[in-house]
């Protein structure tokens, strides 16, 4: 029963109910070759859902734009060879690598003109990676398109980093 306080009727506008995005796109086939398109965030960083294991990391690498994709595959391969039992995850739209799930020693991130490799305990590596951070322990290796990667040094850093206490995230 509805109680009326006055004789005037008040029309209440109908609220429009937004349909979930998934409902709109789920019935549509993916564009092009059947591969789902991934949104690129600022700097061309792929927006990949949080997930653990190799599959989300490979999805991130496949979504890396242009030359960064090939470098991403190479970095992933080098990390896997250096640390055969490496754990992988995508968190905060970036791949993470660790010796156990939830404890990470390295992360990747696409920037506009380079790939940023973050060594979370990089200040303890020898030699210390060149890129400084506002965080005392973190050091970066920035990889640009037309620069060659010193793979021997990179693998040495990965091996060292994997043997240091990881960062819980």
Please provide a written account of the structure:
This protein is an alpha+beta fold and 169 residues long. It has one domain: Alpha-Beta Complex (Aspartate Aminotransferase, domain 1), CATH 3.90.1150. The chain contains 4 helices and 7 strands; from the N terminus they run αβααβββββαβ. Strands 1, 2, 3, 4, 5, 6 and 7 form a 7-stranded antiparallel sheet that branches. A hairpin with a 2-residue loop joins strand 3 and strand 4. Helix 2 packs antiparallel against helix 3. The protein starts with 20 loop residues before the first helix and ends with a strand.
Radius of gyration: 23 Å
How many structural domains are formed by the residues? 1
Kindly, what is the distance between the CA atoms of the first and last residues, rounded to a whole number of angstroms? 54 Å
CATH architecture assignment: Alpha-Beta Complex
Structural class: alpha+beta
Give the overall shape: globular
Question: What percentage of amino acids are in beta strands?
Answer: 15-25%
Number of strands: 7
- Number of continuous helical runs: 4
What CATH calls the topology is Aspartate Aminotransferase, domain 1
Rounded average pLDDT: 83
Described by strand count, sense and barrel closure, the largest sheet is: 7 strands, antiparallel
N to C succession of SSEs: HEHHEEEEEHE
Q: What is the CATH domain class?
A: Alpha Beta
User: What is the helical fraction, as a range of percent?
Assistant: 25-40%
Task: List segments where confidence is low: pLDDT < 50 over at least 5 consecutive residues.
Answer: 12-35
């Amino acid at each position: 029963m509805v109680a009326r306080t006055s004789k005037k009727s008040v029309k209440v506008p109908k609220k429009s109910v937004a349909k979930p995005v998934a409902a709109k796109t789920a019935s549509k086939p993916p564009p092009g070759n059947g591969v789902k398109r991934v949104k690129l965030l600022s700097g061309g960083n792929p927006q990949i859902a949080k997930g653990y294991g190799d599959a989300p990391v490979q999805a991130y690498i496949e979504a890396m734009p242009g030359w960064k994709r090939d470098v991403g595959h190479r970095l992933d391969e080098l990390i896997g060879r250096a640390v055969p039992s490496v754990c992988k995850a995508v968190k905060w739209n970036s791949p993470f690598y660790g010796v156990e799930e939830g404890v990470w020693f390295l992360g990747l991130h696409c920037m506009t003109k380079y790939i940023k490799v973050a060594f979370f305990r990089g200040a303890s590596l020898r030699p210390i990676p060149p890129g400084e951070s506002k965080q005392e322990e973190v050091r970066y290796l920035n990889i640009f398109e037309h620069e060659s990667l010193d793979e021997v040094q990179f693998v040495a850093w990965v091996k060292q980093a994997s043997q240091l206490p990881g960062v819980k995230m």
